[in-house]
Automatic annotation (TrEMBL):
Keywords: Repeat, WD repeat
Annotated source species: Streptomyces haneummycinicus
Gene3D superfamilies: YVTN repeat-like/Quinoprotein amine dehydrogenase (2.130.10.10)
Domain of life: Bacteria
WD repeat coordinates: 10-51, 52-93, 103-126, 135-176
The organism's taxonomic lineage, starting at the top: Bacteria, Bacillati, Actinomycetota, Actinomycetes, Kitasatosporales
Pfam family, one: WD40
Name recorded for this polypeptide: WD40 repeat domain-containing protein
Length: 208
């Protein structure tokens, strides 16, 4: 396997760095940390260009809207915070989970999915800043969420050892499609494979 050279080492967080995400144009990198902050980095210069403060617990996730104008962060304080990427100012605080883990925007940017220690997945109207659905079924913390490329389904992965696939039509849910031999942890993820129908289109990965 060919070796790849490290381009840069970005330092600034005062504790564990938990998550990273590139902006859609690839110019900005967001990072989340146990130090309660989100930091924005200029990819070309490797310099920190933003420091977002507001979380009162470790920040577990970051993700950009498809247009790159808004950043969402999730934390152990149970909040999801929306930030203006250009001004670095807070736009909204969404509450509902006890501790929020995974977050993901739908491809059209109108819906945000979040997962938490409360065993739920929540769907939020990004424009209205309010939840419009709570998906229940996991029996333990839900670590990760992702949308299908067409935005019609959400997949969630939890420490109950399952990956669940949800139809976004009201009241509909596809049955559980994967069970791990060992529970998922923060290093495990579920992702939908494009152009492959379920269940083969869902890649399940876990330790054990």
């Amino acid at each position: 396997m060919a070796k790849r050279a490290r381009i840069a080492k970005l330092t600034g967080h005062g504790d564990y760095a938990n998550a990273v995400a590139f902006s859609p144009d690839g110019r900005t990198l967001a990072s989340a940390s146990d130090d309660l902050t989100v930091r924005l980095w200029d990819v070309a210069s490797h310099r920190q260009v933003g420091l977002l403060k507001g979380h009162t617990g470790a920040v577990r996730g970051v993700t950009f809207t498809p247009d790159g104008r808004t950043l969402a962060s999730s934390g152990n304080d149970g909040t999801i915070r929306l930030w203006d990427v250009r001004t670095h100012r807070p736009e909204a605080v969404l509450t509902g989970h006890t501790a929020t883990r995974g977050i993901a925007f739908a491809p059209d940017g109108r819906t945000l999915a979040s997962s938490g220690n409360d065993r739920t997945v929540r769907l939020w109207d990004v424009t209205g800043r309010r939840p419009w659905a709570t998906l229940t079924g996991h029996t333990d913390a839900v670590w990760s969420v992702t949308f299908s490329p067409d935005g019609r389904m959400v997949a969630s992965a939890g420490t109950d050892g399952t990956v669940r696939l949800w139809d976004l039509d009201p009241g509909a849910r596809l049955d559980r499609i994967c069970r791990m031999r060992a529970s998922l942890d923060a290093d495990a993820r579920a992702r939908l494979l494009p152009d492959v129908p379920p269940p083969d289109g869902v890649f399940c990965d876990g330790r054990g």
